[in-house]
Amino acid sequence: xxxxxxxxxxxxxxxxxxxxxxxxxxxxxxxxxxxxxxxxxxxxxxxxxxxxxxxxxxxxxxxxxxxxxxxxxxxxxxxxxxxxxxxxxxxxxxxxxxxxxxxxxxxxxxxxxxxxxxxxxxxxxxxxxxxxxxxxxxxxxxxxxxxxxxxxxxxxxxxxxxxxxxxxxxxxxxxxxxxxxxxxxxxxxxxxxxxxxxxxxxxxxxxxxxxxxxxxxxxxxxxxxxxxxxxxxxxxxxxxxxxxxxxxxxxxxxxxxxxxxxxxxxxxxxxxxxxxxxxxxxxxxxxxxxxxxxxxxxxxxxxxxxxxxxxxxxxxxxxxxxxxxxxxxxxxxxxxxxxxxxxxxxxxxxxxxxxxxxxxxxxxxxxxxxxxxxxxxxxxxxxxxxxxxxxxxxxxxxxxxxxxxxxxxxxxxxxxxxxxxxxxxxxxxxxxxxxxxxxxxxxxxxxxxxxxxxxxxxxxxxxxxx
Length: 466
Hints:
Radius of gyration: 23 Å
Number of domains: 2
Oligomer: single chain
Number of helices: 19
Largest sheet: 9 strands, mixed
CATH superfamily of the largest domain: Vaccinia Virus protein VP39
CATH class of the largest domain: Alpha Beta
Structural class: alpha/beta
CATH architecture of the largest domain: 3-Layer(aba) Sandwich
Shape: globular
CATH topology of the largest domain: Rossmann fold
Strand content: 5-15%
Number of strands: 13
């Protein structure tokens, strides 16, 4: 183990390593759950990932505190900007210590969103500040929390009225989706539902829904939005590994709108044994869906190629394929999609393009804190480079399915429109998505989370090489 840690340290930049040391140092102490939550959020604001730190946090808090710590962390992040505007309206001079600001929002979240008694929310949050050696922030945080606690209805109304997006992103979304902006901005601050994709090798969504009902797990079978295809939405909170036969590969977690990809490809007329590339594949959900559909006769695939530039994320792809017993069906390679060249042209390229992931903010609320205006500019450039490069590896007559989980038109409709303008041998192919929140664009469709039971924000466009 010591040798492994030494090797890992050599692969991590010194600055990042210092951050990891700090997190481990705080989390693996006897400090309270609130102190650990404050520290984790502080590290997220410094640029670290919620998905990594949340797992670490939940592993070290006590069983009785695990649910509380999860709700407090994710909920505070999800409502971050709305909570911050409450604090800003009550403070003349903002604290220079990021941890004090975090403690304030953690306290506000308990008062306005949780059933935590006022005295516990205030006193325990102040104690957490002291545990973190930030006692100099106690007076400020105490004053604000007590002011809110004295008039909770007023501040609850104010916090709900505000959107919870950074101003630059709110401005873009309001411009891109003026008609839908109000409901969209409110839904982005709500928890997202959990959807399941049933492995067609083992049965249909109705078959698995019956099994869930027998296990007293509430669910609904809902349309995906492509022809009559359907998936499952869970109505109960449950650990995913506790789903019937999850470990045996019967079912996978995949957003309703992400499941559109495989079903769109299944509607195309493809060669008998299509040569398919899944580019930017990690974590491999769409790759697995396509391979599963091949079992039901939707495709006649003998093999697929999947590539991603991140070795660590490819590890998750291998694990997912192994659980689904699909590990021998795909050639998974680590390669840069901006330079990758195929020896044999592909009949289909599925490009799940890098994006700002603004469509999945409900699941990953740290995105709203970390994305900058410059990130959008750089992402658009990267997408254009990947499109131009992969197009060279597409066979004449072949299809490229362009997908993002972004809500920003510059990454979606504008990106594809520019590509079509600059690529004479590319044409847009009409597709049809059928749900009310599937908004037809000049090219392709934008799926929006306009209801708390909707899928995430996704964009789809289908191109053909002529």
